[in-house]
Amino acid sequence: MKPNSVSIKLKTFLFLFCIFSFFVCKKTSSDTEPESNLPNTTKRPNVIWIVIDSLRGDIIGRYGVTPNLELFAENAVTFKYHLVNAAWTRPSTLVFFTGKYASANPVNFWDYPTTKSEVDAFYRSEKRPLPKLLKDHSFVTYMVGNNPFLTDKFGLGVDVGFDQLYDFSNYSEDTKKITKKTFEVLNEISSHDKPFFLFLNYNDPHKPYTPPQGFTNRIQTNEVLDERKMNYLGEVAFVDEELGKVFAELKNKNLWENTIVLITADHGEVMHAAHAISPFTGTNTYYGHGQDLFLENIHVPLLIKLPGSHLKQSIQTMTRSIDLFPTVLDYVGLPIPNSIQGKSLKPLIENKETTKRTYYGETRFTQGYGEGHEFLLQRSYRFHELGKFWLGSVGSEFYLYSDTKKDPNQENPLRISNIATIQDMKLQPDLEKKILRFWKQIRSMEPKLPLYHLSIQPESKDTEILIRVPSGTIRMASYPSDLHLEEKEKLVQIQTKRKDPFEISFEVYPDVSFPEFSVSFSKKQIPKSEIFTGYFGVSLASCQSNCDLLYESGSKRPVIHPNAKVYFWKEGGQKKSYSSKQELGTDALEILKKQGYVQ
């Protein structure tokens, strides 16, 4: 071969190799580089999410203290029947940022401390809360406000992924400081090319109600008000004035038109004497919240100004706080994850809604379900954690049914002591059927409890099984009809003369303690070495402490060895910490005192 021929072929090869390498590298780069590092070719709308803590759904436009919010509503969509799915700040905020019910994430909604195991579990399970998800799509994200539950510094909450977080929960007279910092952030934001997400969280009118002088003078009403409600409304007037300044600054910075502005509250406030003492917790909740799911606790405002729109619209249909996460994604043009339990409000705004939304909520000692204006609330131990709110015993769980068209303040709900004996109440057939359907909906909406299974191959005609739990109660799920059971909440004793193999299944309610059990044939107890457990059939004697993972079989039934006299396994449910000894630190306690959470 001639030298120049080799040279030409070599040059051709190198040229083609370079082209190939360029496209491969380009493809690899675009596939692996985070979107936040890519040039922003399409300007998405900005998002400002404003939370006014404890603002009830019946305040705006009623007492003369919300002129700026009323002016805002002239160019916004107003949702008249908007309900939050949790009734105090931490779980409600996590509903905002996960689009899921409070029980769908590992952080408890009973006590103030968040244990390290809860926080770690949240970070494992919630990879992309809303601020993180938006950050991944080129948004710069800020939080300005008073919400101690959005940081993990004080043992009160979790970090949901803001680029910058300015929390004023440790400051007195925080409202003006929040507005001042918002102006600084808007000044910084206005120089960015990227879209932004700003979460603005005012703590007023959360108790203690201490409005600046003169703001209660703005109240206009014929209603006879006590001092607490006057001061509450004075704080509403104060926040409204501060929001007016924020709205003006947004317009001055030319940020108004291309910004979604969403205004809501994390919960309401109890002001009706009929609910002064919560029937669910027995706690004095007058001018407070978080102890029930009555409408005054869960009905809050929702106003949304759409980008580039001056649409004024009023929507009467029920909406829920789980719907806000997917709504934001819908309007900024991002796909909604399949794991989200809410539904975007965009079809409702565009009059394309085909199904009615239903309500499911959770708070301390309470679960609830609603359709339209009818609700069934349950006193519930379902999500309890051991701590100062609960010491381990399970009491009666009653139900309250109300129709808020007939009883707007829910003063006289129908009480059902035991759902299993509802037929004894001799209700109208349609009402009984509806209550049972609502009850089934509550059961279907909540996460399932783990099931424990025991497979027994008797050696004699005299088998005895004892199951105990230190906290909570045992609930039998399935067992042969010829077994004799004695159930005493924390103890179940089973006796049978059967000689053929059988299985029993049970759950621990709530899932806060691990069951202990013993099996005896003809009064002779089976040793741990002869009891096999979990998916792999490991001997129970092989583990002495922290053995709960050993028992797991996931969703699959283990292959039970034919010679196993006793086989035990746990189906479903992740490993969890069954008790918490965590106390509030000094900083956390001071924050909660300033915010009126603790006295």
TrEMBL record:
The keyword Signal applies. Residues 45-333 form the Sulfatase N-terminal domain. The keyword Signal applies. It holds the Pfam family Sulfatase. Residues 1-26 form the signal peptide. It comes from the Bacteria. Keywords: Signal. This is DUF229 domain-containing protein.
